[in-house]
Amino acid sequence: MTAIDLGLPEIGGLAGVPTTDARQTAKDFTSDQEVRWCPGCGDYAILAAVRSFLPELGLRRENIVFVSGIGCSSRFPYYMNTYGMHSIHGRAPSIATGLSVSRPDLSVWVVTGDGDALSIGGNHLVHALRRNVNLKILLFNNRIYGLTKGQYSPTSEVGKVTKSTPMGSLDHPFNPISLALGAEGTFVARALDSDRKQLTEVLRAAAEHRGTALVEIYQNCPIFNDGAFDVLKEAGERERRIIPLRHGEPIRFGADGEYGVVRDAATGVLQVRKVAEVGEDAVVVHDATLDDPSYAFALSRLGGQDLDHTVTGVFRSVSRPSYDDLARTQVDEAKAAKPADLGALLRGKDTWTVA
Amino acid sequence: MTADVGSSPTVSHGTPAPGRSAEVRKLDRVVIRFAGDSGDGMQLTGDRFTSEAAAFGNDLATLPNFPAEIRAPQGTLPGVSSFQLHFADYDILTPGDRPDVLVAMNPAALKANLGDLPPGGTLIVNTDEFTKRNLAKVGYDGDPLEDGSLEAYTVHRVAMATLTKGALEETGLTKKDAERAKNMFALGLLSWMYHRPTEGTERFLREKFAKKPDIAEANILAFRAGWNFGETTESFAVTYEVAPAALPTGTYRQITGNTALAYGIVAAGQLASLPVFLGSYPITPASDVLHELARHKNFGVTTFQAEDEIAGVGAALGASFGGALGVTTTSGPGLALKSETIGLAVMTELPLLVCDIQRGGPSTGLPTKTEQADLLQAMFGRNGEAPLPIIAPCSPADCFDAAVEAARIALTYRTPVLLLSDGYIANGSEPWLVPTVDELPPIEVGFATEPNAPDGSGEFWPYLRDPETLARPWAVPGTPGLEHRIGGLEKAEGKGNISYDPDNHDRMVRIRQAKVDGVAVPDVEVDDPTGDADLLVVGWGSTYGPIGAACRRVRRLGMTIAHAHLRHLNPLPGNLGDVLRRYRRVVVPEMNLGQLAMLLRARYLVDAISHTKVAGLPFKAEELQGVFTEIIKGVAA
Ligand code: SF4
């Protein structure tokens, strides 16, 4: 088999999607459906952030589509006054792939959860990432099954006691960021439901990315897994644990920026160190555009399942042709090369005539 | 000889044709089977002979038989590949029950196929492969070519490999490469025996090996050597002519079911002026449809090889949501995986074409063999009440019409449609009267463009229905003012919002059923030439050929019999109940354990006899003839 260099120009994530000059507000993106998540659910904050961030893209509302799977988070499309499909458990990325490939004029968003994306739909997620379909995937991670009322999920910490695991869960959890980077996702980011500012920044960057953007959003489920991320929100703890990434800036954190991420010269492993001990020059300057995903992967390993450290922001944002652009280019080239002569196709090369 | 019509073939003895040394006999039909090791190129040989027969104007039908294993050891029984071809001077319906001529390239091919050759049949054997070792490999104690066990047949012993190598001596090819052309030697010999035109094959070989002209020349030399061998040696005293068939006038080509299906999908997109999106995952015997469609992107066809069966149908449904003709192709195991998404298509009422090229089941079953056992899966294989229209083509060429028809229903009624082909017609081929494109009726799609709320609110109600078809509007993303959300949860009638209301659910379940029940389906036609038959045979799908051929045989025996063949399995034709009641007995032959019979008995309270076979092979006309005559005698007694 031969590989063909498709040599596409770099384009923005929203190229081809019609825009509008009309002023839009969050209200324009609010459907008439009553929002039915439990009171205090982190999904509300994410919904609010998405509704109020979309107007700044200036897209025509009818050219935005939200596709979801099944789970609490997957109710999301009903609350958006755009086109939407609430599909089947785990399958949203595949449905969105067909939609995105056949419609370059749409901005397609996938809303999914830890069970939907990583358990039943794990296969579709990694293949969307590998193909780099032009989808924005928002993965609400609450580390629990909410809709089915409280079983452990593929991101639950080992030993999680739930209805289905009264003696504690046994399986090692996924780190969604590591997983996405392992699939060579071209845009991988993490944000917290409670940090509107960073969430909005990440969403904006995702929208502008051409290809699959995976955004993991830590989301609290007050009913079945309350406080799962509290340590990341408490003053004092927050500063010590959250490692925010900013492209081009040294990776420092702590109340006074006293910690930094450094690379071990011998092993290449990334580690957290006191800046005072290693010196400012030793602190790694974040580069999200590195082609080799192993750097971003190493960043994703800085935090464990106990959230001792949690890296947030854009881990990786690199340019690679998106599957849908490539697929459409092939169709366009075929059309240009050969007219669509149905009669000629049906007749083929070898015909005979009965008179 | 086993004739489609139950008669002996018309044979007229004659003198050698001018320029020919052998006597020429005229036949009305011949069945040839090429059999060899899977590395011997039997499929190509069969294909080429088929093209020659087609170009000559015969009617024909073919039956390839692939080994189940990807690469069985050379010279073993599991490695045998064969290709059967039936060609005639009249319209035939099947590839023939048994070969009249068997070409066996090695002992394994002889052993695996000899049982099908009737006494008196012609056997052409490549003697070079009949070594002690090869004979032992397939369990022959002695050499069947020497021990008299083939006395019942007319045996031609030809050292094909040696002769081919001899003919290619000058070419400078290695012995091994030269020997590979022996299938073309066999083709040349058979082409001589049956007076086939040769230009097509020579042209084909030049094109196929355009990048390797020395291989092309070697194959042509081998082909000519085979021809000349027949002409110059005395071992073949007779050659045969099968005159062109008197088929309806028009332009013909040869086509397999899978190619016809792919063309039907391309045509449907063109007729509906919609892009086609195929989401598919490789699976035998459906992959050829994916391969074929992948070559026709110039018709606005996108092919997506998904990560699994579920993603294949999911992407197709996503494309349908976006306004394309979404298609997925698969076989039984894949259909099982797609059920949930097909259910979503039922619920969201979006057009979707699902093609199941059935194979032997359950589970992985017999991937390369044919069966019709997915009918009930197609009918009922989803959770909840999830009805959808089902269409089954009856022959290779019919796959084209069936695909267009299935797409028309999907687009008109906004519903998933299941098309049930099978391995027999998918891989088999026959002449196809190529349709005139201008005469194919366009498919009207009509996307929604305006708000439709009956209350004048200016809202868009995605589940408001066309009173005629009960189809809901297809409003694709990008249409301003029609933003809406659909999904797998139950919908409120009209407005389409989520609804858990019990009465609404009851109503919606019944509406979805009524929509499918109301799909316009033509009455089933009954083939009952005398109009006074007692026995009606009801078939569906690929059994059309064998049933039709068996009915002809029964009639030749002076008995009457009627045949109704169902193309639409859901909904069933409106006149079917009356048709069934008109006959004293009804028999339903199927390559499953009686799935259509069960539906007919349940629906019409008809005491249908179910005749079944699940051997991975199509029915033989001969066996059905026996079944039918027994029943007729029983009714008369
Ligand atoms: S169960 Fe948890 S995740 Fe689901 S809506 Fe309620 S709070 Fe939110």
* CATH topology title of the domain at 3-228 in chain A: Rossmann fold
Mean pLDDT of chain A: 95
Could you say which overall geometry of chain B the principal axes of the C-alpha atoms support? globular
Our Rg estimate of chain B from Cα atoms comes to: 27 Å
Q: Roughly what percent helix of chain B?
A: 25-40%
Tell me the greatest interface: A-B, 61 and 72 residues
Shape of chain A: globular
N- and C-termini, Cα separation of chain B: 31 Å
Biggest sheet strand line-up of chain A = 2-1-3-4-6-5-11-7
Strand content of chain B: 15-25%
Major sheet characteristics of chain B: 7 strands, mixed
What's the alpha carbon Rg of chain A, rounded to whole Å? Answer: 22 Å
Keywords (chain A): Oxidoreductase
Protein name (chain A): 2-oxoglutarate ferredoxin oxidoreductase subunit beta
GO molecular function (chain A): magnesium ion binding; oxidoreductase activity, acting on the aldehyde or oxo group of donors, iron-sulfur protein as acceptor; thiamine pyrophosphate binding
GO biological process, one term (chain A): cellular respiration
Please tag this protein with its features.
A: 355 residues; alpha/beta; Rossmann fold; three-stranded antiparallel β-sheet; 11 helices; B: 637 residues; Pyruvate-ferredoxin Oxidoreductase, domain 3; six-stranded mixed β-sheet; 20 helices; 19% strand; disordered N terminus; binds iron/sulfur cluster
